[in-house]
Fold:
Amino acid sequence: MTSLIEPFEEATRPPALTAELPVGRTRGWWGMVLFVTTEATLFATLLGSYFYLRFQYGPQWLPPGIAKPELLKPLIMTGVLLPSSLPVMWAERGIRKGQRWRLRIGLLATLIMGSTFLALQGMEYASKLKMFTIRTNVYGSLFYTITGFHGTHVTVGLLMVGWLLAAALRGSFGRRRHERVRLTAIYWHFVDLVWVGILFTVYLSTRL
Amino acid sequence: MSTVAQQPPAGAEARAQLEERLERHWGERPSLRSWFTTVDHKRIGRRYVVTAAVYFTLAGVEASALRTQLARPGQRLLSAEEYDQLFTLHGTAMIFLFATPMLFGFGNFLVPLMLGARDMAFPRLNAFGYWIFLFAGLIMFSSLLAGDAPDGGWFAYVPLTTRPHSPGIGLDVYALGLLFFGVSTTAGAINFIATALKLRAPGMSLNRMPVFVWAIVATSFMVIFALPPLNLANGLLFLDRRFGTHFFDVGRGGDVLLWQHLFWLFGHPDVYIIVIPALGIVSAILPTFARRGIAAYPLIVLSLVAIAIVSFGVWVHHMFATGLPRLSLSFFSAASLLITIPSGIQIFAWLATMWLGRVVVGVPMLFVLGFLVTFVLGGFTGVMFGLVTFDQQVTDSYFVVAHFHYVLFGGAVFPIIAGLYYWLPKMTGRMFNERLGRWAFALVFGGMNLTFFPMHVSGMLGMPRRVYTYPAGLGWDAWNLLSTVGVFVLAAGLLLVLGGLLYAIRRGRPAPDDPWGGDTLEWVASSPPRPYNFPVIPRVRSLHPAWDGRTAASLAELDSFRTLEEGRRTPVTSELDGRYEWAAEMPEESIRPFVTAVGLLVVVIGLLFRWYWVAGLGGLLAAGTIAGWLWPPERTPEEAAAS
Ligand code: HEM
Ligand SMILES: [Cu+2]
Structure:
């Protein structure tokens, strides 16, 4: 206990009152991390439900009449979405040094990659809908619900990135002011990572 | 802003000046507009309490109707359909619209005060959460007026609740209403955790955080992990009902037990989501009335955390009768029994506190004692259920109804009433009448036991739950009549509580700042607290800051980094040891949280009535408002330090 009491005078004094800058992790950081945690739990239960239904279904998963999914398109989608985290990271590093141009270019790149992913998902749906719909059977329900739910998250993420880009173009951020960039980046990384789980569950696991 | 901590001339004049400046930044002129725009955690907290109390009353009236119907065999006051709707809405409302929001209301009011902060971490999110809660409750209750309330029981088992078997709108109200309400609970939980981690007064290391705040934090973490399964279940149910998916449709490869797993993965932790903050209230009140600090603080905190974790591993005990594999039943049975250990530790810590202290039995303490008795009884029958063989005998009988009302009424309502009396002086600045309070306790305690104890017996005699009537001559008549008489005694007691509190608010004598001699920081603030809570943010030196002379002395030092009177600011400190980091600007009042909540309400109504374009408009309203809400101010490159 003493060790907690001794450095006390310093502990109650602010180290940097002048800067008016967040020191350490901010409230916003915690807010976003907790939000992502609860969202991740949601995806985990959703994917868990997929496996639960699959194993309750019996030995012969996929239901009759449903072909094993093609892998080419989802792999391309992965190739587009996963690396889209890199420009966000690059942009965030840039704005920490005060480089607005890096922020703008990085966000734009992410926006393009994310939109490409959504367009590819649209094409994927177009071809799948010819084979089965969300009402065909439980597999159809799972497939469209899981991918659609993720797609919604990508859309929200893109709205956030686009909104951030608009603010960046107007000139709101700099070395000292960029918390929103950091928070949006956390969300975007999350949306990316979840896709790996979905790729595995919906596509790859059917081939195991 | 000033960069050095100057020492202004201490004394009354400097203090008055300080308070005036803080008032300018934090004060709100009461007006209709400010009613919709306020972000003050104290106003929001009080609103949560009042709204939850109204919902409790509604759900209580429903319960009285149920019991009146069951008073004697073969009555026809309610039809079977009406009975189904009433018990479903009673259970759903008590769990979701009363217990959790009531405790979140206490949390909202108290957490910043106990931490020595000036508001919650996200004040606007807080306001937003309240509006959502209000609207969700209105939607759920209005379905009863429309004559088509949810009627599938509070856990809404499929396939009963899928469309072929429940074609009305009632279960859409259930699924959407709970999803909507989940937004509020999740927002609140995130806010509590961020507040407790970042806004504690300097010097309040985690091991000096009051037990009540620990309880709120533990609950909030449970919400973060427990609500997703519920939301998922309700989302899938809505998809099945509305858009023809097959998650719960056995004919097309779905599975009905999926619902039960998801629901109880949430549902069991939810019991503790309700009970843990209530235990926190007990841990705040009991030491005050035992005239000493709480015994075994670290053990109490650890057992709260342990309960929070273990309660995720026991959900299957609600499904012992569904034909799952034997081995898994044994595992879940053992885990269920395990959870009694941390609960027991807390009980013994409280007993030790009372044993070592000098107990003064004020009205709040009476309700705490009432809690101890009923909760232990409820825990006792709970242990019996943990045993698979016993459970399979009495499952779905009135024995279950008796058990969970002992746990929930004992474990939540008694502490809540205790808390209402205990913090009434702080919330309203008024004292209540002791004698009236004692009478109220006698009636509530007697009425509660008279209502629910006989249900143990009728349950053992084989009376199933959720029956709208029963034939005479099965040996149940007397027990049911007793139970119904009990409800009216209980109702009289609750009315006396309500009347006493209302009378106190209108006519009570003014409350001193610290009527009970409590040890936490809310008793240092005035009654009711100023909009900025503390003119000087305290420096915390111990677990009992209000009893500790050095902390008290720190309230008289007008250090500018703890007065922060320029702007609306509060100190931000480090997560573990409460080291002062910087002074954060707090948001001021805004109409946007209200507008966003209205947008989401429109989404829900649109989905409910299949007006999808209306739902779309509501979504646009909400999204647009959020975008404006979070839009960063334009800054010159110099301000932002950019190139
Ligand atoms: C105010 C006094 C209360 C009375 C008189 C009361 C009475 C009842 C009655 C008669 C039932 C229906 C039993 C049946 O037909 O199966 C019931 C069910 C229930 N009650 Fe209460 N109750 C009260 C308070 C509470 C509280 C405070 C909670 C929770 C915080 C609660 C939660 C429930 C739940 C979850 C159900 C089950 C509903 C279902 O079967 O779906 N009750 N209660
Ligand atoms: Cu349980």
In short: Chain A touches chain B through 66 residues (CB under 8 Å). Residues 138-170 of chain A form the longest helix (33 residues). Residues 1-10 of chain A have pLDDT under 50 and may be disordered.
